[in-house]
Amino acid sequence: MKVGLFIPCYIDQFYPQVGIATLRLLQRLNVDVTFPMEQTCCGQPMANSGFQKLAAGCDRNFIRNFADCDAVVGPSGSCVLHLKEHLHDEQHPTEAAHLRNNVYELCEFLTDVLKVEQLPPVRFPYRVGLHTSCHGQRGLGLSSASELMKPKFSKPEQLLNMVDGLELISLAHPDECCGFGGTFCVFEEALSAKMGKDRVADHLRHGAEVITGGDMSCLMQLEGTLRRQRSNVRVMHIAEILTADA
Amino acid sequence: METTVRTTHHAEAAAAFLRDEENVDWHNETLWFVRSKRDKAATLLPEWEDLREQASRIKNHALSRLDDYLVELEKNAQQNGITVHWASDAEEHNRIVLDIMRQHNATQVVKSKSMLTEECHLNPYLIKHGIDVVDTDLGERIVQLRNEPPSHIVLPAIHLKKKHIGDLFHQHLGTDAGATDPQYLTEAARIHLRQKFLLADVAITGVNFAVAETGGFVVCTNEGNADLGAHLAKVHIASMGIEKVIPKGEHLGVFLRLLARSATGQTTTTYSSHFRRPAPGQTMHLILVDNGRTRQLASPDFRNSLKCIRCGACMNTCPVYRRSGGHSYHTAIAGPIGSILAPNIDMKQYADLPFASTLCGSCTNVCPVKIDIHQQLYKWRQVLGEAGAVEPAKKVGMTGMDVLFSRPSLYRFAGRAGRRLMKLFPSLANNGKLNPWAIHRDMPKPPAQSFRDWYAEQEKK
User: Fold this and answer.
1) Which pLDDT value is given to residue B6?
2) What gap in Å lies between CA B182 and CA B35, rounded to an integer?
């Protein structure tokens, strides 16, 4: 199975270490992974701002890059959900459909496709708060949502539980939105900032030393908030923890 | 006159509300408390998700044959002795109410909670025509005395604290200055409202469910104020949006179990009153109001929103609503569901609302009738974008982004240049005037190289 590594634009530019960790994790699990060099963005910023149709060029570029992959994996639930729901190209409908059906968020890929039950040994002896991203949780179904009266589960937790020494903390609001929301964070700045602050406070109150999650955009929001508060609580993408060698 | 396109209204109102952070925290926690009560109530029913599914299907079915069920409702209601009126819009609705008032030489109205009459701006209309209209739901009476609209469809005065109510009642009802005891204040409101009930010529109520099969309708309240009004006044006018019709009486069992649990976490509302025919000596009117609903019905993308039973669960769970308050939505029905309904009434005036969401999806999950709320908000954004109801600057920005992202070499160049710029002038990136992100949050530190650059290096090795 040929797996295309999708590193969303903002991870590429600001968080290369997340891309590196994702790549290493997949390689350690013996996945045949390639990184198409001409990839850019999933198109979500345009679409969420009401201009999904303006993202045509972006969509086409994505398809051009990944059409020959059996599966695409990306370390960002939000971008992956956007692709799953909206990737579209009138000239290449078959390729677009293939990619929509075969694009995976990293944790989802590990638990559902690779069915990982054990990771190459990693040790991370810290108290960790898991931020479940809304798009990952409710959109991709990576974990159960507190609103639904259905059995509880969590794919990211399942993976974090395979890490030696890691202690997952519990939160008062296990699945409250962090307030990032794509362009929402800029157009509704005051509200978005307050949501970030509240989200961070829940983790701090429960003694998190590290905050993690599968969506770097949420984590960017939480990190930006923590840094402004001069907090030394660290923010790490789940791929970084799953490849941590302490 | 062309309305100016302004998609920032909610953001500005929210920013103003957020200035009093302590109050925001209190508002947020109060609504979260209601959401938690809803969770507990839902947990106690093993069939909760089945109930939601049933409710959704009944509503889907009712909407698919809305015309038939409305005609059936009309016929059966008329047979029961109810006068049925049809109103195509808010103005017609208000005129019908006024006409009925005039026929009876009525000047005093008591009104129990009805978001439809809020939507139609009935109160100001009646007042303008010399009618004394009094809202009898306690929360509604409070906001009426403050001369402001309800901020929540179930909890109209949830944005106010005991102190506000004490000051308000001192001013209007003559209670002791500085009094904040809920029992004392409620008693004062009770005495005040009793007088209004006794004097009223006409009682107006909303309708939670109208049953086509029986021609009757159900009004749910926790204070019994609808019953007091409707039983004391000579004339009862019930106003309903046409989407409130359900086929059969047996369906009520599904909705009444879901409504109160979703709204407040109660097992059922204190009063679920069934009105079927006027009492001897009384007249009963039922007004069926369209006001844009058939337009919504005709739109496959937004039809689903007509399933709404107005429980307010989406507001209580919404992290945006909880922190921005109902008035920031500047429409009768605030919150996630209101943000779908309002642009259907006026696309330009409410173009901001579908953007007042992070699309987190919690609203969709709590909705007792399974409205895909966050998906519809996303769809509205596309409709507004294409209709030119979004600020031109936003469109220019987004076009620019597509140009950038469809040309990988340009993207690489811009990325490199941007990171270098951030490194050389960090104060520029962290300047809140140029970059709204940086007002309350730090920008990430630009790394030396992008993932792509790192990967290219590895390939060479």
Assistant:
1) 62
2) 22
- Is residue B231, in this structure, part of any structural domain at all? yes
Which residues of A fall within a CB distance of 8 Å from B403? 57
Same domain, A184 and A93: no
**A-proximal residues of B, 24-63, CB under 8 Å:** 24, 28, 32, 39, 42-43, 45-46, 48-49
Pick the range with the lowest mean pLDDT from A121-130, B77-86, B244-253, B410-419. Answer: B410-419
Q: Are residues A98 and A137 in the same domain?
A: no
Task: Return the residue matching tokens 């039973």.
Answer: B309
Tokens of B366: 């709590």
Closest CA to B312 of B367, B263, B256: B263
Cβ-in-10-Å burial (0-12, 13-18, 19+) of B298 comes to exposed
Q: Do A147 and B441 touch (CB under 8 A)?
A: no
B421 in A contact zone (CB under 8 Å): no
Asked if B382 lies within 8 A of A41 by C-beta distance, the reply is: no
Q: Which residues contact B44 (CB under 8 A, 6 or more apart)?
A: none
Q: Buried (b) or exposed (e) across B328-342, using 16+ Cβ within 10 A? A: bbbbbbbbbbbbbbb
- ipTM at complex level: 0.96
A169 with A208: CB under 8 angstroms? yes
Mean pLDDT of B151-165: 95
Chain B residues in contact with A182 by the CB 8 A cut-off are 358-359
Instruction: Report DSSP letters for B171-238, one per residue.
Output: HHH-PPTT---HHHHHHHHHHHHHHHHHH-SEEEE--SEEETTTTEEEEEESSSHHHHHHHHSSEEEE
CB contact under 8 A, B357 and A50: no
Residues of A with Cβ-Cβ distance to B43 under 8 angstroms: 149
Contact between B437 and A186 using a beta-carbon 8 Å cutoff? yes
The 10s digit of each residue's pLDDT in B214-232 is: 999 999 999 999 999 999 9
Range of the domain at A35: 2-113
Q: Provide the whole-model pTM.
A: 0.95
What does the alpha-carbon distance between residue B351 and residue B344 come to, in Å, rounded to a whole number?
Answer: 10
The residue among A7, A12, A13, A52 with the most chain B CBs within 10 A of its CB, best to mutate, is A13
Question: How many domains in chain B?
Answer: 2
Asked whether the beta carbons of residue A7 and residue B358 sit closer than 8 angstroms, the reply is: no
Q: Predicted confidence band at A246 (pLDDT cuts at 50, 70, 90)?
A: very low
B339 within domain boundaries: no
Gap between the Cα atoms of A178 and A196, Å rounded: 5
Q: Is A75 exposed, middle or buried (0-12, 13-18, 19+ CB in 10 A)?
A: buried
Domain boundary among B239, B274, B291: B291
What's the gap in Å between the CA of A14 and the closest CA on chain B? 6
* Alpha carbon distances (Å) from B62 to A90, A219, B70, B79, B295: 36, 44, 9, 22, 16
Alpha-carbon torsion, ordered B327, B328, B333, B336, to 10 deg: -140
Q: How confident is the model at residue B459 (pLDDT cuts 50, 70, 90)?
A: confident
**pLDDT value at B3 more than 60:** no
pLDDT of residue B295: 96
pLDDT score of B1: 35
8 A C-beta contact, residue B215 and residue B80: yes
Residue B2 has pLDDT above 60, yes or no: no
Q: Do B385 and A138 touch (CB under 8 A)?
A: no
Let me know if residue A224 belongs to a domain: yes
Among A16, A35, A194, the residue with its CB nearest the CB of B18 is A194
